[in-house]
Fold this sequence. Notes:
The complex is a heterodimer of chains A (about 525) and B (about 325). Chain A has 15 helices and two strands.
Amino acid sequence: MSSAHTKTEHGHTDHNYLNHGSGIWSWMTTLDHKRIGLMYFATVSTLFLIGGFFALGIRLHLAKFGAEPLLDPDTYNKFMTFHGAIMVFMVIIPGIPAFLGNFVLPIQLGAKDVAFPRLNLASYYIFIAGAAIAASSMVFNQVDTGWTFYTPYSTAKTSNGVILLVLGAFTMGFSSILTGLNFIVTTHKLRAPGMTMDRIPLMIWALYSTSIIQILATPILAITLLLIGAEKTLGVGIFDPDLGGDPVLFQHFFWFYSHPAVYIMILPAMGVISELITAFSKKTIFGYRAIAYSSVAIAAVSFLVWGHHMFVSGQSTLAGIVFSIITMFVGVPTAIKLFNWISTMYRGTVTFEAPMLFALGFMFLFTIGGLTGVFLASTGMDVHFHDTYFVVAHFHYVMVGGTLMALMGGIFYWFPKMFGRMTSDLGGRISWVLIFTGFNVTFFPQFVLGAMGMPRRYFDYLPEYTNLNQISTVGSWLIGLGFLVGLITIIHGIFKGEKASDNPWGAKTLEWQTSSPPPHENFINTPTVTAGPYDFR
Amino acid sequence: MSWSSLIPATSFMPIQATEIAKEVDLLYAFLIIASLVSFVILIGGMTWFLIKFKRTSVDQKSAYITHNNFAEFLWSFIPLVIMMGIFYWGMVIFEKLRTPPEDVAAEIHVTAEQWAWTYRYANGKEFYSSANDPMIVPAGKATKLILTSKDVIHSFYVPAFRTKQDAVPGKLTQLWFEPKQPGEYIVFCTEYCGTKHSGMMIKIKAIPSEEYAAWYHAEKKGADSPADLGKVLFAQKACASCHSIDGSRVVGPTMKGLFGSERKFADGTKAKADENYLRESILVSSAKIVETYPAAMPLFQGQLSDEDVANLIEYIKSIK
Lengths: 537, 320
């Protein structure tokens, strides 16, 4: 279990990045990727609580427990919009790359920091600025378009608050692009001696693929969002049919970013899972190359499938068919990853601490999310399911079940490295049981609701959908409770957790070869790498 | 097929009111079975490994296995083949859902707006959903809808028919169905369209086709038929100075037998003359210039209302 294949020296002083400089100003002006990662952690967690508040509001309303509806239709539509926009643009997209990625990537590479530390700090403030602009739309001029901003509803039929929300998302897009750029350069230029590209951890492969999507796709979103602003304020007529524009063109632009964005959300999660599965099976990852290259393959194919959001939009039948077949190709690298993770457990020695439970939860939920994706990729089947609760259930299984499970697993896994303390394993396990159970109780009934025909984004519904909606609402409160327990466990761990050793899980990647928490520049002496990242022999 | 009845989950689907609904449900049943099998293989396999290879002592050693080319080929290739099969199956159904049959018993222009639907029949009968009028269609025969929207995008979804189509402003889309039995079927709007999105519901009422014929012809027409109105407009706008209705060649192509014919364009492309093609050619004639004809027609964009265009299209359709 010792660092037989890496040569490092531990910093046995009490000096670490957390006490390297003190006071709030030293944090706000820090260039240390680890501190910036933690700042994202605090920010994203706060935004997650706000997005979660809206989610619980939506579910409580839809349970119809009282005689009177909890929300009026316009308020409901705003809740739905803010829930989606906050969770997508401010939680799930930045969650793993900006928080866990920032903390882990340079240490895993054996680097002192990211390639452009100042740019990294700037990315954080750009993100904060974007989130603040977007949040101001909540206060001043509320938006009810849904997070997809479909035209001409967004440009012609709703308040100017859309401009603020869109401007916020536009600004956060820059943060995303700059972080991606920073990661790509860091991966190429700052690897420790001996760390060839086929020795970088799979978390890095995932972040690297994600970064490529971020810098290629995000500008498309930025332009599209600017066009909405231009359409709304100047009436340029690109999307407005009365001025000769095409409202469906917006959908092409929007999904040309937002479909790859789905992989911005899920690829980093897959990276986390690859780390967890191998660490808690105490066994080298099965099919390193297959997992690494399948990340790149998913990133590449993700650019060619956007039209599957538009099978009933009026695009040609042929276009629907072409997008359907390409979409099916995404299933292959995804299946490869699942099979590889499972094979990693074969003849391993598996333990079940909280991070591993979250990884297993990811596999369970992501498998259901992936399989139901095949239903939607099939054109003839999608016509029935399109814009129903089946879709809602599907993408929550993939994005929430996938990304949030991985995020929680990643937090509990790297927590000792971040804070030099352990979290309560019991607390983590209770949190997992509640989230996992609540998640299935919430979203599985929604597959059935979708099959029965209940459309999404509905303020009200037919009586036959009532029971399943009420079950779903009960589940949502279990999830809420689970995250609350998780939050308490994390806060307790930060202040009262027992001291962590440098490598409490016996993992092999470089971040475990330095002290917990690491010194300011990660390593006292730059490590030299002589073997692959998961060499459990 | 008998195996599909093994799946109780099909019962979650709404009633099967069309033949296509049955075909969709068969694919659905297959997908559920295939998913269950895949789920058992993946998560069952995972669970089995977790139990069998649980760590029992501190110094226990794991095996050192890096990869296995044969296994990795199999679990890439087999899913690919299965998914190509599902793709093909879905495509066959999709084409049926998207291609109306040649003989359509009823054609209805459907216009969506926040938050209601208007349906207008070929003889000028017109109904507005907020008056709780159902859309009357013949049972056992095909009905084709020509959809558009006055304001934002809406979507016309009939769960019992397993079909759905967006109604897009500035564009004509189509949808068809053939309800097997008389009955009432609910229609939802599934594209988010603002405050009363969830309240934008209508019913399709399928009645026996003889009754439908009687109903269709019985009442006095509310107005002239769209085709008649289109004929008047055709004269007013002096369309006849360039377009004959008897097949003879004037400045522009004849209207005789135009609808449904294949058009060849100056740039070498081809298209079938459907409602959307006619709409575009009336409003922006320069978009597609028919082979051997000059690009001489003025633009009518902004001069004709959506209703005018729909009437002209109905008139052109009637010139056979």
